[in-house]
Amino acid sequence: MCELGKRLQEAREAKGLDIAQAAETLKVRRAILEALEDCRFDELPEPALARGYLKRYAQLLGLDPAPLLALYPLGTPESALSTPAAPGPKAAPAPSNTGWLWLIPLIFLLAVLGWLGYRALNPPSTSVPTPTPPAPVTPPPPPQVSLRIATQPTGARVYLDGFLLGQAPLEARVEAGERTLRIEAPGYQKYEQVLTLQSDRNLSFALTPIPPTPPASPAAPTTPGPTPPTNPATPTTGLVLRLEGTSWIRVTDARTGRPLYEGTVPGGTQLSFPLPVVVRAGNAGVVRVIVGGQDRGRMGNVGQVVTQRYGQ
Question: Which of 17, 145, 153, 179 has the fewest C-beta atoms lying within 10 Å of its C-beta?
Answer without folding.
Answer: 153
